[in-house]
Design goal:
The complex is a heterotetramer. In chain A, 30% of the residues lie in helices and 22% in strands. Chain A is of the alpha+beta class. Chain A is globular. Chain A starts with a helix and ends with a strand. Helices cover 73% and strands 0% of the residues of chain B. Chain B has eleven helices and no strands. Chain B has a single domain, classed as MetI-like (MetI-like fold, Orthogonal Bundle). By secondary structure, chain B is mainly alpha-helical. Chain C folds into two domains: 222 residues, Rossmann fold (3-Layer(aba) Sandwich), CATH 3.40.50; 220 residues, P-loop containing nucleotide triphosphate hydrolases (Rossmann fold, 3-Layer(aba) Sandwich), CATH 3.40.50.300. Chain C has 19 helices and 20 strands. In chain C, α3 crosses α4, α6 packs parallel to α7 and α14 crosses α15. The longest helix of chain C is centred in the middle third of the chain and has 18 residues. Chain C starts with a strand and ends in a 6-residue tail after the last helix. Chain D is built from 15 helices and no strands. The chains are: A alpha+beta, B mainly alpha, C alpha/beta, D mainly alpha. Chains in contact: A-B, A-D, B-C, B-D, C-D. Chains A and B meet through α8, α9, α11, α13 and β16 of A and α10 of B.
Amino acid sequence: MTEISRRRLLQTGAVTAASLPFLRALPAHAQSSDVMVAVNGQTINSLDLHRTGTNRPSYQVAINCYDRLVSFGTKPSMGGGLEFDYSKVEPELAESWSVSDDGLVLTFILRDATFQDGSPVTAADVKWSFDRAVSLGGFPAVQMKAGGFTSPEQFVAIDDKTFQITLDAPSKLAIPDLAVPIPFVINSKVAMANATEEDPWATEYLHLNTIGSGAYKVARWSPGEQLVYERNDDWASGPLPAYKRVVIREVPSAATRRAVIERGDAQVSFNIPSKDALELSEMMEVNSTPIANCINCIGLNTKFEPFQDPDVRKAVAYAIPYEAIFQTAAYGRGAPLWGEETERSDIAWPRKTGYMEDLDKAKEHLAKSGFADGFEVPFSISLNQLDWMEPTALLIQESLAKIGITVTIDKIAGADWRTASLVEKRLAFHLEGFGGWLDTPDYYFFWAYKDGHLFNSSNYRNEEIETLVDVTLPMEVDHPDYEPNVKRMLEIALEDLPRIPLWQPALNVALNGATDYEFWFHRQLDVRPIKPA
Amino acid sequence: MSTAAPQSFVSHVSYVLRQNPVTMIAFAMLGALIICAVFGPSLVPYDPLASSDQILQPPNASHWFGTDHLGRDVFSRVIVATRLDMVISIGAVALSFVAGSILGCIAGYWGGWFDSIISRGLDMIMAFPLFVLAMGIVAALGNTVENVIYATAVINTPFYARVVRAEVNIRRDAGFVQAAKLAGNSDLRVVALHIFPNALPPMMVQVSLNMGWAVLNAAGLSFIGLGVRPPTPEWGIMVAEGANYIISGEWWLAVFPGLWLMLAVFTFNLLGDGLRDMVDPRQRR
Amino acid sequence: MLKIRDLCVQFETRNGRVDAVRGISLDLARGETLGIVGESGSGKSVTAFSMLRILDEGGEIASGSLTYGGIDLAQADDAAMNDIRGREISMIFQNPRAALNPIRKIGHQIEDVLRQHAQATAQDARDKAIAALEEVEIKDAAARYHAYPFELSGGMCQRVVIALALACHPQLLIADEPTTGLDVTTQKTVMDLIQALARSRKMGVILITHDLGLAGSYCDQLVVMKDGEIVEKGKPDALARTATHGYTKRLLAATPHKGKKLHELVFDGTAHPILAQGDVLLSVQDVTKTYAGKSGPVHALRGISFDLHKGGCLGLVGESGSGKSTVSSIIARLQDASTGEVKYAGSSLFDVPAAKFAKDPRRSKIQMVFQDASDSLNPRHNAAQCIEEPLRHLGGLGRRGRQDRVNEIAGLVGLPTSLLSRLPHQLSGGQKARVGIARALAVEPELLILDEPTAALDVSIQAIVLNLLADLRRRLNLTYLFVSHDLAVVQMLCDNVVVMRTGQIEEVGPTTDVLASPHSVYTQQLLDAMPTPMS
Amino acid sequence: MSQRARIIAARLLQAIPVIIGVVTITFVLTRALPGDPAVYFAGDAADEASIQQVRETLGLDKPLPQQFLIYVGDLVRGDWGDSLSTGQPVLSDLSRRLPASLELTLLALLLSCAIAIPLGVMAATKPGSWRDHLCRVAVTAGVSLPTFFTGILLIYIFYYLLDIAPSPLGRLDFLYIEPERVTGFYLIDTALAGDWETFGGAAKQLVLPAATMAIFTLAPIARMTRASMLQELSSDFIRTARAAGLKRRKVLLGYALRNALLPVVTTLGMVFSFALGANVLVEKVFAWPGIGSYAVDALVASDYAAVQGFVLAMALLFVALNLIIDLLYAVIDPRIGFEGG
C-alpha cells in the first residue's frame, strides 16, 4: 500500500457506504518513468498481420514494430490531442518519392535505415514484403487492391535504394493506401531463412517473431495475457519514442480496467466506454476523437417487405429519439448526425441528415405508406458492441412503439453477427458501425452503398449510385467532376435512406501519467508518439 | 409411545415452523417473494420499461432504489423481475426434478444394464463443464427464457438422479417393498408409489439448493451476454450490467438487484431443511 | 463397592419432561454379578449410562446418589469422571461391530485407551494391547492386532470390545445386552468368557438384559425393572418360586425354554389338541439356489425337499446363513430358484416367473409375515392403508367393502380401530406385528409364511403374538411355514420341524421326536444352547 | 496393491464411454453453434473468395462425418488443432492456462475447507444452538451471491478504496518476471526456484480471486461436514470411546471427524469440478488467464478446435478427479479397499 494513499485514507477517516464513490483518482504510482502500461479489452492473436485469421487488435503490432514507405501527417483533433491528417502524406522509410506524369509509375528513394538485427533495409526487402502482402490473400489482399496493387509484377527493386510500383490505372487512393498498416516492410533475409515449401512466406515464424525496422520489437508475448514491447534504439524512420518498455495488458472486464486507470497502475486505457470517458475526463486527460469516415447507423434491409416502402423508411427516420440516444448511448462523445447541416461543406462526410425527431411527421409518413397500422420486426444487435447498441436499441424500441411499430430486441453472438448481418445480410432491422480507412466519401459508399459489397447490410441497390461510385472512386479530389458526383451521391443516400445515420462515434482513450496520444484511422493503439506526462 | 392423536398435515407444518425459527423466516420471505411475483406489476410505482431523462439518479424519495443508465426506476424493475426469476428457478428445478427422478428410479431399481448406461450418461453431463454446456445450448438455440431454463435443467438433472438412485437402491429389497410385491403390485407401481415417495426428504434439500443455483446460473449467463433478452427486467442481467458501474460510483444499479437476488437464493437455501422436515413422515408426532 | 440410593433421571424431550428412572436403589459388592432384567423402555440402559454419566442429549441425573469407592459419581466433575471411565468402571454394548471405530485398527483402539489412562507408554503400548487381546482368548493376537472391525466375526468383535473395556483392569464392568444379535452358540461362549474374567479378577459385573433365562443362569443377584422402577429383587432360583410382583410372574411365564408348552406362556392360555392334517398342500422338491458372488458362485441352497400338509405348521430352523430365508422367499415367489420344483395344491409355482407372479390368481393364496415390522411397513402409510394395500389389487372389493374388511381383520388380530390412522413409527412393536399379520390375512390366504415374526419383540409381547397366531391357524384353518433361529419358540408352535445348515437339510421329523432324540450332532448343539427352565 | 489396481482399472473402464460421449457431443454442439468461424476469422473487409479460402484451411467445407473422422484421427495423434482466437496450438494454450485455473481453484478450495470444515464441526457439536444457525446463515449468504458480483465488490473495496490488494491484472504484476515453468503453478515454480519475492507477488495476486471463489464454495462443504458429523456423533463407537474415558478432543477429531471425512471428500470432488467450470466469471473479472475465460471466448467466436480441446481436457480432468477421490476413499476407509469398490 503506497505511502500516499495510506495517508489519504487516514485523513478521510473510515469509508462509509454512503460516501463510496468520492475517493477519486490518485496520482500515478511512482512507476519507473521509462515503462508504460496500457490496458486493453481485446486480445491479440498473432504478430503477423498477413496471416489468415489474424484479428483487428493484432494490427497494432504491425504499426508499432514495422515501418511502411510513407505515413499520414497529424493535425489537432476536435476531441482533444492529435489525429491523423489524411491530406498530408509524410515520408517514413522512403525519404522521397515521385509520380510519373500519367500517374502510373511511383518511384521511392529509401532512407539509410537498418532492421532490428542490424542488417540494412534494401529495396529487395520492400519488394518481398509487398509481394507477400498481395499473395497471402484474405483482408490484406483486398485492402491492397483498393489502392490498385494486385500482383507482384507491379513491384520492382531498381537498386538497393530505389523501389518502383507501376499501376494499371491512375488512382488517388494509391499513395494513401501505402500508409495503411498492411504494406509493412519485413527483413526478407531472415524470413526466407525460416520459410519452408508449404509455408513460403514464413507465416509460422512471423506469427511468433517480429523482424522489422520499426520503433519497437516484441520482447515477450503470452497470448490472452500480455504483450511487452522493447524500444529499438536505432530507429531511423521517426523521432525516438520516450518509453523504453511498453506493456499491453489484456483485461476483459471494463470495471477492472476503469479501476486500474483511476488508481494509476496503468497509464493508458484504450477504447473505453463513453460513460467512463465522460466521468474520467474530469480527473485525467481523455481523448474522444470522432472516428473519421465512420457512422453508427440503423440498417433497413430491403429484403424485409415494409422497408421497401420509402415512406416507411422516412417514418422510421422521423421517429428516432436522436438526442436521447446520443446522450444515453454515447454520453455526448462523438459528432451528432441529425438535424440541419449548417457549418460544413456540401461534400463533407459524415454529415447531418436533415431528419430529426418529429412523431407527427413520422405518423404522417406511416399513414401514407402501405403499412398504416404498423408492423412487427426483430431488432438485431451484436454481443460484442453492447455498450452502445443496447441502450440505442432500447430507446428506438420504445419510441417506435409510439407509432405502432413493435420491435423485439435480439442479441447475436460475435461469430454469428458477422455472418448474419454482413455475409448473408438477413437481418431485417439492425445497427451497424462501419468506418472506412481511407477518409473519402466515395470510399465509404464503395463499401456501404454498392450492391453486394460487405458492409451494404441493407441490400440496397441504386443504378445511379452503382455507376457514380465506380467513376468517382479513382478520381482525384481536385477533378472538376469529383465534387458534383459526390454531392449527387449524398443526395440519393439521404433521400432513399437505406441506412439512417445516428452519430459519428468517438474512440475514447484515457491517459493518466502519459500524454501526446494520437488517434489513427485503423483505431488501434500507436504507442510510438506517447510520452510521460 | 406418546399416544396423542396423529396431527393433521397443517398442524404438523406449523409445528415444524415453530420448532426452527430460521425456517420460519425462510417461509415468510418465500411468501413475500410469491406476492412480488404474482402482484408485482400492479404494485410498483413506475413502469419498469419506461426510460426517462433522469439517468443514473442515486436512491432518493421518488426513486427508492435510484434509476439506471436509461433512467428506468430500479425499484420497479427489481420487483417485477421476481416473477421471471421465480419462473426460471421453479421451471428449471421442476424439469430436472422429474427427469432426475425417472432416471434415478430406473437406474436404482432395475440396475444392471439400465444402471450402467444411465450412470455413464449422467457422468457425461457431469464431466461437461457446466457453464460451457449452458452457453452452448443458449448460444445454439438463441437466448430466450425457455432456453435458459432448459440449459439449467439439463445441468441440474444429474444431482437429482444421483440422490434418487442411491435412495431407491437402499430400499430396493426393504421389507415393505417385498410386502408391496406380495400385495400384487407390479414393479412399476412398487417403484413409483412405494419406494420413490420415501426418497422425497433428501430430494427436498437438493431442490432448495438448485432453485438458488438456477437463478445464479441465469445471472452468470447474463454476465457473458447470453442471459435473458433485454429489456425484460431480470435480477441476473441487472446485476451483470450494474456490476460495471460500481467502480464508477453508481453502486445502486448492482447492489439492490444483487441484494434481492441474494435474499431470494438465501430463502431457497434455508427452505431446504424446513421442506425436508415437512415431507419426512418420521417428524410427525 | 457401588451404592445407588433412589436415583432419578429425567429427559428433556419435545413434549415435556420424561422420567426415565424413578428412584432406584442398588448395591453391588466386589466380585458380585448383578443382573438387571426388564423390557425395552424399562429404564435399565439409562441406569447404566447414568453410572458413567454418558447420558444422551437432554438427559440429566435429577436426584439421588451413586457412590463408588467413596466418590459420588452424580456430583463428580468432568475431569474426575474421565479418570473413572475406563479405569475404574467400563462398559460394553449391544452390537459389537458398530461399537468399534470402523476405520481404525483394533490394536490402535486399545492403545488409545491404555495411553489415555497412562497405563502404557508409546513403546510398551503395543505389547500391552496384544496381552489384552490374549486375555480374551483371541487366537494369534499379534496378527489380529492389525485387523479392522469389519474383518472380524460378530463374536470376535465382542471379544475385542471386552478387551478394550478391561485393558485398564477396571473394578466394575457394565454389560448392556452383550449377546443379543449374536448366534445362539456364540452367545454361550461370550457369556462364559465374561463370567471367567469376572471371577479371575474379582471384578463386579452388572449384566443388563431382557432375557430372564440368560440372567438367571449367570448372575448372583437379579433385579427386575419396569417403567423406571425396581419391582423385584432377589436370588435367581429364589425368584422363580417367591416372585411376588405380577409383572415378574408374567415375565417368568412368557420366557420360552425347553419343554415349555405354548399355552403356558400366557396365564389364561388353554391348551389345544393337535389338529388333524389334510393332504399335501405344498411340496418342495430338490430346490437349489446359486448366486453369482464376487469371488465365485455362492450355493445358498444345495437341494431342499420337504412337504407341508394342509392345516399343518412346519418349523424351519437354522442359524443365520443357513438359507432358511431364501427358501421362504422362493416359496412366496419373491425370487426364482435355480433348479428344482415347488408344487402348490398340485400345480407348479415355477411356471410363472417371480416378477410376473403379481398377476397370478394364486398370488392371494400365499402370503408372508416379515420379521422386522418397522422395516416391512411403508413409513408413509398409516396402519389402515398398509392392511388395505393387498385388498386393492387382489381383493376385488369396492371402497366400502375394503373399509369393512380392514376393520374386520383388525378386530380379528386384536388391533383397536383407534390405532388404524397411526403411522408405523407411532405404533409399538406388538402393534406393528399385528398390522403385519392383518395385512397378510386380508386376502384370505391358505398358506402363511412367517419369517421370524416375533424375533424383534419383547418376551411378554412375543408370548401374546405366538398365541394369537396359533389361535388364527385354528380358526381360519391356515397352513403355516414358521421360519426361526430359536428352537424354543419352534418347539412350542410347530408340529413338524426341518433343521437347516449351510443350504442343506440336517434333520426332518415331528417336533417331539426331533427334540427327544436328535440324529445330527448339529441339532444336539442347538438343543444344548436352549436356555433351561429356571431351576 | 491388487485391489487398488482393480479400483483404477474399474474406474478407467467406466471412463472410456464417458470420454467418447463427451467428444461426440462437443463436436455436434460446436457444429450447432450459429455463426460461421470462417467469416469471423476471414477478417473485416474479406470478400467471398477469402472467406472460402479460410473455410478450406479450416477443413470446414468437408461433410460433417468426414470432419469428425479427421478430428478424431488428429486427436489420437495428439494434435488437438490450432485455436483461431489465440493463434496457438490448442494443446499449448491449455497447458499454459490449465495450471492457472487449477492453482486458483485448488487454493480457493483449500481456503474454503479451512473455514468450512471447522464451521461444520462446531455446528455439529451444538446442533440447534444460535451458533449453528449463525454458521448456516453466514455460509448460505456466501453462496447466494453471483461470483462476478462478489469479485467486483472485493476489487472495489480492497483494491480501489483501501488499496490493500494489488491491481487485479492477472496472475503476476508485470514488475515481476514469470518464473521458469516447471509445473505451471506460479507458487510452486517460484518456491522451487527459491525466488521468494515473485512468490510473494504471485500470492498477493491470488488472494482476492481465491477469496471470491472460496466464499462461493463454503456452503456445500460446511453443510455436508455438519450433516456427516451429526451422523457419526450419534453412532455407537463414539459412545464406546466416551465410555472408555477418551478426551473430548480425541473423540471429536480422531474418531468422529475421521469417519465424517468420507462424504465430505465426495462433496469436495463435486464442488471442485463445478467450481472449475464456474470460475469463468472470476477469470473475466480478475483478468485471470484461466481455462474458463478461454472457453467462453472460443464459444463466442465459434472457435471449434479450442472449444473441443477445452471440453476434452475438462472431461479428462473429471475422470482423473473421480479416480483420485476413489483412491482417497480407499486410503481413508479400509472397508472400501477390501470390497473392491
